[in-house]
Specification:
The protein is built from eleven helices and 15 strands. With 334 residues, it is α/β, with parallel strands linked by helices. GO terms for molecular function: nucleotide binding.
Length: 334
């Protein structure tokens, strides 16, 4: 296809800040329709980005025959029904993380893809960061030797979409399902998805809203590698603290900022490439790369990454993490 006609369902922060402005600049993409339960907002954004079709109901948007794909950026509890409806309408799907609230809901969605040509991708933008891509190539080149440990974290200054993310029946969980799942995906992706064998988690609900606002998690894999992930909302910091440190037996690599230390003739040497952009630029480019990848998969330019099958594996780990926090003990994965 020469032009991919895309519809956007859900016009919250990420659609306004990333999806709409970025897709509007793709030469081979036409934003053909948008939809939001707040119709006045949808109409305003439709006028701003010259979108020909504006809807309140996603079913009306999916009925458009010219649509090739949709981006689903609605609260998590709606992903299941909207994604299945989109699959039945034969629209390729990019669903913002997480695909669903639980592994069972995720499997239910992915089953609907059987015997179809529909491509479903889950939005995991951290793996599309330019510095993360460089980091993965460095790891796979053996530059820090055999990796044995990853330490990742995200302490967020200001929480986004707080109106629903602290309501468990809508979000499925708290800060781990919001931020931690992105770091889980990044860590697993960097190492080509080693199988997790057990998890231990501690969650804190400091604001007493019924979901965790701070989480610390230990994950062990069948290869002997370990990962720790800490996440928190509404911290008194100058800006978000986001990091991913990768430890090998011959050096250390990390992102945000990108840095590589490697043993050379017994000495630890900084071999970091030149700066590849500001924090803001890297964040924006992660979404640009993600959207470009999705469009490329639809048009046959590249294989699909961050698939529904990957989401099932990650959500099984997430379910175990929440069980571990609830039971206050280690939980084994099958």
């Amino acid at each position: 296809m020469d032009t991919v006609h895309v519809g956007i369902i859900g016009l919250g922060v990420i659609s306004q800040v990333m999806h709409l402005p970025l897709l509007s600049k793709f030469e081979n993409v036409k934003i053909a329709a948008i939809c939001d339960s707040d119709y006045n907002k949808a109409r305003f954004l439709g006028e701003k980005y010259h979108v020909p079709n504006v809807f309140r109901d996603y079913e009306d948007l999916l009925a458009l025959s010219e649509l090739d794909a949709v981006i689903i950026a609605t609260p998590t509890n709606t992903h299941h029904d909207i994604a299945i409806a989109a699959i039945h309408a034969k629209k390729h799907c990019l669903v913002e993380k997480p695909l669903a609230r639980t592994a069972d809901e995720t499997r239910s969605i992915v089953r609907e893809l059987e015997n179809t040509d529909v491509k479903l991708m889950v939005g995991m933008n951290q793996r599309f960061r330019p510095d993360a891509i460089v980091l993965k190539s460095f790891i796979h080149g053996g530059e820090i030797g055999d990796v044995f440990y990853i330490k990742a974290g995200w302490l967020q200054k200001n929480m986004t979409d707080s109106s629903w993310k602290t309501r468990k029946e809508i979000s499925g969980g708290g800060v781990f399902l919001d931020l931690g799942i992105l770091l889980l995906d990044l860590s697993l992706w960097l190492l080509d998805f080693p199988k997790a064998t057990c998890v231990s988690a501690i969650h804190f609900d400091n604001t007493k809203k019924g979901v965790e606002d701070f989480s610390t998690v230990l994950i062990k894999t069948e290869t002997g590698l370990a990962m720790t992930i800490e996440t928190g909302w509404n911290f008194d910091v100058d800006r978000d603290l986001l990091y991913c440190n990768v430890y090998g037996n011959e050096g250390l690599a990390r992102v945000n900022p990108l840095k590589f230390n490697k043993k050379i003739q017994g000495n630890l040497v900084n071999v970091t490439p030149e700066r590849i952009g500001s924090h803001e630029d890297i964040f924006k480019r992660s979404y640009y790369n993600e959207l470009k990848h999705f469009i490329g998969a639809i048009t046959g330019l590249n294989p699909l990454s961050s698939t529904g099958e990957e989401a099932i594996e990650k959500m099984a780990i997430v379910d175990a993490i929440y069980e571990s926090a609830k039971l206050n003990r280690e939980v084994l994965l099958p």
